[in-house]
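Researcher: Sequence recovery benchmark, item below. Answer with residues only.
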């Protein structure tokens, strides 16, 4: 007598269910991964502005004049990317706002860099993110309230 070969319907359904569970886990992880990459892009776009604020501070420029569109600071909408709508400087505080092309976890949110001027002439930067419930998608140094 010939032995049946192949899989039963139950075995195939179990395999499909396992693949579905693994795919849903992978999709959620991928969404967080892309959001983290986009958040990091915003932080990197702020680096030239950190240099401008530091140079202005060492040149004796008052905080009131360290704003977008004044002096060497470009206008807020002059610095954009696919995910970041604008990088804005207001009295030395730098804000990167995420637009509609960014991950839903970042849309409409901001990463904020605030300078703390040290007595010896150094500048320490405090990084913050506007939505505490979404701290998982921003760099660890930015998991503070603005």
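Model:
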């Amino acid at each position: 007598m010939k032995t049946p070969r192949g899989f039963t319907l139950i075995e195939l359904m179990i395999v499909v269910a396992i693949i579905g569970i693994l795919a849903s886990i992978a999709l959620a992880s991928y969404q967080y991964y892309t959001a983290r990459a986009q958040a990091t892009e915003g932080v990197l776009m702020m680096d030239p502005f950190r240099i401008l604020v530091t140079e202005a501070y060492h040149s004796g420029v008052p905080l009131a004049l360290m704003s977008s569109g004044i002096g060497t600071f470009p206008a807020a909408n002059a610095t954009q990317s696919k995910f970041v709508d604008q990088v804005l400087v207001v009295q030395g505080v730098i804000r990167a706002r995420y637009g509609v092309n960014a991950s839903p976890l970042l849309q409409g949110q901001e990463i904020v860099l605030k300078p703390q001027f040290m007595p010896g002439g150094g500048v320490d930067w405090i990084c913050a993110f506007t939505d505490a419930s979404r701290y998982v998608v921003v760099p660890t140094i930015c998991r503070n309230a603005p």
